[in-house]
Write the structure tokens for this entry.
Amino acid sequence: MDKIVIEGGRKLKGEVTVSGAKNSTLPIMAASLLTDEESIIENVPNLKDITTMVKLLHSLGAKASYENGTLTVKPGKNLKPVAPYKLVSTMRASVCVLGPLLAREGYAEVSLPGGCVIGARPIDLHLKGLGALGADIEIQHGYIVAKVKRQLRGNDIFLGGNFGSSVLATANVMMAAMLASGKTYIQNAACEPEVVDLAQFLKKMGAKIQGEGSPQIEIEGVKHLRGARHSIIPDRIETGTYMVAAAVTGGDVLIKKTAPEHQNALMDRLAQSGVRIERGKDTIRVRRNGRLRAVDVTTLPYPGFPTDLQAQMMALMAITPGISVITEKIYPDRFIHVAELNRMGSRIFLEGNSAIVHGVKRLSGAPVTASDLRASAALVLAGLVAEGQTEVHRVYHLDRGYEKIEDKLSRLGARIWRAKE
Ligand code: UD1
């Protein structure tokens, strides 16, 4: 396996172009199963998770190929609606094939995804929503086995849990409701831009959807969906990671081909901490000359501060004078980066689902390991400002979600490269 090596201390300067959103692409790939016709998906990032989803589509019997940012999917008429443990266990998002398979085939077997390093990740809301549409669901030998007697029926479904709305449960129920009879209302639907992007794709396929991006989505079932062409929205988490990278190094970076309107929560926190932000139509310029100020951050469903940027923000607060409190309301155990950041000299203490960050003057480079995607990104950001050399091990995680991260950061002036373990 590879590792990423960083020599810290360089200010980032220049321009970086954001890739298409991984978390939009994955459910849209699943949605393409709702028809037997060909769909073309553009602006798709070249990432490990996308390759895993291509493998899953193949194992379901669909044709799928990826070339230069464009994915072509042709499900054909004969799908085998079984998503095996081997693939679902490497990528939790595979669970979003459940809704489309059930809608199209009336039957689906999808391995239970299980937990992951960021804590328990139940799927009760997915099952509740599909059950409300009339699916008969059982757990057998580690698999969700879902059947429909005749046809799914529209319903009024409240899709909130203890931690608020769910992005992929909203996606799954939306996709299942596409071919159901009558109307479906999803209450407490996730409002994330990736849900809106999925709805845009489904509409191009012929779906009747209203209210996407709000907590109530209305769907009128249709008899047939067709293949569609769609371009994926910019990745807001990748954007946010480069915004924090500019701030943490005291640099000046223009982020291009992004969607500034998806970045309000992070822009607010960065501006409060003394970072200068200039917003263009599809660009964001992030600059910092002076000292940073400590700010508190609480993760919440969109449009709140994203949990997927919590670790990166913590790397910034780690070198900010004062004390900041970072509270995690989506995944209360998502703090595995704390111990690794502390190995680099930060002073972060955990108190329930909050991290109390005492800013230090400097971090010192160290070998570090992270076992989740965004935690790995936070360690890279810490490495960019640390004195000396940082080695981030298990790069596998970064490759799941960041396209060419070492190339993009190198072009901004960072000293960063990939090496063999
Ligand atoms: C998606 C993102 C992930 C992000 C997360 C929260 C993808 C591929 N992944 O994951 O990067 O961190 O949104 O923004 O889009 N929950 C339940 N029951 C359920 C489902 C979820 O209790 O059936 C809880 C979860 O444990 C969590 C919260 O709801 O506390 C939000 O999770 P959810 O929005 O479902 O995350 P994902 O869609 O899996």
About this structure: Residues 2-19+234-420 form a domain with the UDP-n-acetylglucosamine1-carboxyvinyl-transferase; Chain fold (CATH 3.65.10.10). Residues 23, 26, 93, 121-126, 161, 163, 166-169, 190, 194, 307-308, 330-331 surround uridine-diphosphate-N-acetylglucosamine (CB under 6 Å). The two ends are 6 Å apart (CA to CA). Residues 343 and 366 are 7 Å apart (CA to CA).
